[in-house]
From TrEMBL:
This is Helix-turn-helix domain-containing protein. It comes from the Bacteria.
């Protein structure tokens, strides 16, 4: 039987990311979200299997392409999906938080 506490943690993290999108998450959160071990998560980072943002020694996983790869759209349900703001505003928010262009974010999402 799967560890229920990890399942609950994974669901809570996914809900938080879809409700309050952030540009990056820790490698530990990436491991939790994907249901993989911490060493496997770091191996994926080393081998370039996941889009990352590096700041010196700090490594963060970029959430936009990760959520897309897991089958979750960048546009969360609710007011944003109802036309009050579009995908471009969400991509723009990721771009400004990362200090890059929207083209760079879209390229990462396609990765």
């Amino acid at each position: 039987m799967p560890d229920l506490s990890r399942t609950v943690q994974r669901a809570a993290l996914l809900n938080a990311l879809r409700t309050f999108p952030v540009p990056t998450i820790s490698v530990d959160d990436y491991a939790l979200l994907c249901g993989i071990s911490r060493p496997t998560a770091y191996a994926n980072v080393r081998e370039g299997r996941v889009a990352v943002w590096r700041d010196g020694r700090k490594v963060q996983v970029v959430t936009a392409p990760l959520l897309e790869a897991l089958g979750y759209p960048l546009t969360p349900p609710g007011p944003l999906a109802d036309g009050q703001a579009g995908d471009s505003s969400i991509v723009g928010a990721y771009a400004s938080a990362l200090g890059s262009s929207t083209d760079d974010v879209l390229a990462l999402a396609a990765h």
